[in-house]
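Hi support team,

I submitted a single chain yesterday and got back a structure, but I'm not sure I'm reading the token output correctly. Could someone confirm the output below corresponds to the sequence I sent? I've pasted both exactly as they appear in my results page.

Thanks,
R.
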Amino acid sequence: MIEKQVLLDCTQAEMVERLVDLGEPSYRGRQVFRWLHKGVPFANMNNLPCHLRDRLEERFLDIPMSLHAYFPSQKDDTVKFLFVCGDGQIIESVLMNHHYGYTLCVSTQAGCRMSCAFCASSMNGFQRNLSAGEMLSQVLLANRYLDNEACIGHVVLMGSGEPLDNYDQTIRFLRLLNDTNGLGIGFRNISLSTCGLVPFITKLAEEEIPITLSISLHAPNDGIRTQIMPIARKYPIQELIGTARAYVKRTGRRVVFEYALINDINSQPSHARELAGLIKGLQCHVNLIALNHVAESPLAAADSSAIQVFLNTLTSLNISATCRKEMGADISGACGQLRHRYLKSGLKIDTISAGSSLEGPIETINEVR
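Hi R., thanks for writing in. Yes, this is the structure output for that exact sequence:
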């Protein structure tokens, strides 16, 4: 039995080569590339001869995962997806509807190695990296969910996993996403979030990909950061900020610092003043986040008044900062939460059904057949 290859992992040039190897003219590879990036299965590629569609079905996978279930928020237009990979791995994505259009939050790994205290992504361990085609599949299946009437225009790599821990496939995904023969999503409409893998931030700066780099900082000093982010033991905060300054100098792009406000940990005005001193003179923006509650974590969110004082303190010190709008709170919208709760529930792929519920506020599972 032939082990099927994932064609979505291929660049257009590689796809042309695959089709030429099958004895087809090069233009067939370009046709298949365009079809696949519209999310169209082989059987529906109606400008290909039937014999070629059959050979493609036999040798290759078109979209290497399926949309298993979706969870619409009752509070806003956010939708959370559970996808099933070909090997049974469960991953998640979040669809958000902003005034400027649809954004998809994409996962880059099944699980995560980073073990940040405030995040659910690592709670079931690290399983494996996702391929570029699997990342792209999340976008294509979300577009299919939207019935292609309104397509994804922005992508954030802020789902489960550390994108820079899966560096090569992440870069391949970014280039595929941007390809004008495919989805053609502009690099400036893409954000990548990292917990701070210093050597790979340096490497990313050299790629000449003008995406927005977001760094999960969450603390103004190493004493606090090492409590909640193990990666801080390997890359001290001064080294991380120095790398961010070098990134800005090399790319001309400002960086975004993500900062989740945790009660009694990092949310006092003194912390805001220390943070302002740390990033003074750096072309950046601070994105303040109300901590998402994770049942297994003892960490608690700072209250709204503390968040406002923190924001006011930063802006009074001439630091560009905003509070991120909370979306999808009723559907476990934050990183790894839905996947964790799904795995914790013990429900199997073939037993979950429409109308069943997981522990907590999720009321409805809409299963895709």
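A quick pointer for reading it: Residues 1 and 59 are 10 Å apart (CA to CA). Let us know if anything else looks off.

Best,
Support desk
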